[in-house]
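Intended use. Records such as the Glycoside hydrolase/deacetylase entry shown here are meant for training and evaluating sequence-to-structure methods. They are not intended to support clinical decisions.
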Amino acid sequence: MADVQYAFGKGHQVASHTWSHPTLTSLSADQIHDNMYRIEEAFSRILGIRPAFMRPPFGAWDSNVQSVSAARGQSIAMWDADTKDADGGTVASGKAVLDGVANANAPNAIVLAHETVSTTPSELVPYAISLFKNKGYQLVTLAECLGVSPYQVVGVPQQPMPHWTCDGTPKPGLACGGNSGISCQTGTPIVASPPNNDPPTPEPLTNQYIHPMANSGKCLAVASNSDGAAVTVQDCQTSNSQAWTITGTGLISIYGNKCLDVPSGSTALGTKLQVWTCSQSNANQQWTLGAAQTLQWTGKSRCLDLTDGSVANGNRMQIWSCANNQNQQFTRTDGPGSGGGGGGGGGSAKTIRPNKSGSTCLSAVSNNNGAAVVAQPCVTGAANQQWTQNGGTLLVHGNKCLDVTDGNTSNGAKLQIWACNPGQGNAAQQWTVSAARAISWNGRNKCVDLTDGRTTTGNRIQTWDCSPSSPGANQIWNLV
């Protein structure tokens, strides 16, 4: 208790890592609920909080884990690099991992380490703090990095009671149900309110413009300030009809008192969205921000969806089965311009560097249609190495898109550039940059791949089957 109270009191973010540290992908939905419930209950008693993030043990998660986590209002937290300290890694090897992250010059990074390994807080963490500060990085919590609240509810700790023990709970690695004799708990623990019964709420994010991943120049807009007004796609402009507030309590509001709403709570695929007078108790207005830039209807397997993938003005937004595809990915900016807020929707040009070499850049050999995309030494300011992410397209030379030659879906298909409509492009020009730093071809299980793992000058870049779990070494790219 004392350790977690100390960390929380110092301003560190506290999140769920489950109760008994099982492999969640091997459990039923009720068993996952139980493991999350029990750690939430401990947090509610000891700290008076309910977390908004969950890191799955061993990094093991699937659609079942994601669905339960979303139902409990928690986003799944993963990492970019692992010090391997919990697997016997030495301080020296951990420092090497940190050096690799720092030298890659990634815009941001999450590094896995364990304070339960004695040398991590005493040696590795101080080294990391000094290293990243000297590199110009700002050290923030995960929630601060994403611009969201770290907690669903913040109340007050409860008075310790004699029954606060681990008796009758799953032992490490195990779960409720089956032959355990332990009943599964699937509810929500109560967080005690302050003495005035007015619990504090997370700080809201105001003036948020929400862009479909397909085009950062388009924004979610409301037809009017009336109950039942349609939620549509429109050209972005400074307007109250496009300026949303992420309240931090599950509501996404606009015009002060209207909220994103599922009409009549219908779970039917294709149900068109509206706004309605906000009510914190209205389950049809509760949304969870997903780790993959999705907006999931809390407790349901339905996500905000760009109908038919169309960014035409007036296209009405709908709900659809959550699939983490481009139609369900949205970025946010502070104001109508692209490139801020939730990230990934456009903005300044960056180089694209293979994780294997911080001094090698993706380069177009010329500004002509069909020009090959190759590995070359990075040259500061070189126009053929400056890529801009606009919606689903990756642009170079202003109006040339990263393109799969002839739309070839075979492994080893070579990449080129071709003229395109920035932010839209054709089917061979649509890409998603994942949090794990893979660049995947939308609608295909293909990723941008460093051919044969070679960083030699002129090595032509290809596509290859995306690695099934975390990206392979040849498929990790840093946008710097």
